[in-house]
Amino acid sequence: MDQLEFFDIPSPCIGVCEANSKGFCKGCFRSRDERLYWLELSTEQKRQVVRLCQSRKARVLRARQEAAARQQAAGDDPVQSGLF
Fold it and tell me: pTM, whole model, 2 decimals?
């Protein structure tokens, strides 16, 4: 039996609204089509988009952490290098 839906899935938009080089929003991590057709998506499709956005965000955060760790391991402190 399907679960009853009492509330619509809200848009994951956080108001940044700037696309990266791959076309994903830098704020909510939705693709162009996901942003454009959000209001036309079913509840299940919206849930899937939100899951995809969470996955994309996690990937970006991991990549940033790995890049920071590589910089630190190389002895390149981004805070200190910006001072001189």
Answer: 0.76
Contacts of 75 (CB under 8 A, 6+ apart): none
Closest to 71 (Cα-Cα) out of 84, 81, 56: 81
Tokens (6 digits) for 39: 């209001």
35-62: b or e for each residue (b if 16 or more CB lie within 10 Å)? beebeeeeeeebeebbeebeebeeeeee
Q: Quick: pLDDT tens for 52-61.
A: 999 999 999 9
Which amino acid does the sequence have at 38?
W
